[in-house]
Amino acid sequence: MLELHESIRRGESDGKVWFVEHDDVFTAGRATPPEEIRDGIVPIERGGRITWHGPGQLVVYPIVRLPRRDAGAWLRALERFGCAVCGAFALTAEASVDGTGVFVAGRKLASIGVALKSWINLHGIAINVDVAEDAFAAIRPCGLAPSIMSDLSRATGRRISLDECKAAARAALPPLLDGGIA
Q: Does residue 167 fall inside a structural domain?
């Protein structure tokens, strides 16, 4: 990620969007209180607090130069992107009112954590597609109760595959990447 960032900064690349399904890992963003960091939690440069990444979750990393120099607009654009992905499955989603994420019926389906260097994005949005019910049980994800977390499969009442979610995410990318983030 850092190598791609550097190639964008030097003008050698326009960037890329990575779609990743991680092995089980807990990461702690810059806003994580020190008392919440313990063995097995990896500190990382993104914003936000502790979260889980793992099987059944699609993490979208748009490693790109921001369409405009406005961090808040970029975060709201990532939330709209997450809402659009949910909409592809006939779910009415909304952005978090007190943080960064995407909710359906009061349950959090996607978390956002980024780092901006030279107005180039690092990290991105994690969309819970079909995760184990206890995936978040060992932490307070984004400072919230683990019970608030859900996924696309539970919200729709049918199993959603990672490939289905990737297709919906690819379709939702153009407004995010083309600067349509007003």
A: yes
CA distances from 48 to 79, 140, 147 (A): 14, 12, 18
pTM score, whole prediction: 0.95
In a domain, residue 36? The reply is yes
* Cβ atoms of residues 147 and 138 within 8 Å: no
Q: Which residue in the list 83, 86, 142, 165 is annotated as catalytic?
A: 142
Tens of pLDDT, residues 12-34:
999 999 999 999 999 999 999 99
Hey, what are 111's tokens? Answer: 């978390």
Count: domains in the chain:
1
Beta strand pairing status for 41-43 and 57-64? unpaired
Question: What CATH number should be reported for the domain holding residue 100?
Answer: 3.30.930.10
Handedness of CA 95, 100, 102, 104 (dihedral sign): negative
Residue 147 domain-assigned (yes or no): yes
* 142 is a catalytic site residue: yes
Q: Is residue 182 predicted with pLDDT exceeding 50?
A: no
Rounded Cα gap, residues 14 and 5, in angstroms: 10
Per-residue pLDDT tens over the stretch 76-102: 999 999 999 999 999 999 999 877 899
* 157 DSSP β-pair partners: none
Q: Residues in the chain, how many?
A: 182
Domain hosting residue 161, numbered range: 2-177
**Residue 182 falls inside a structural domain:** no
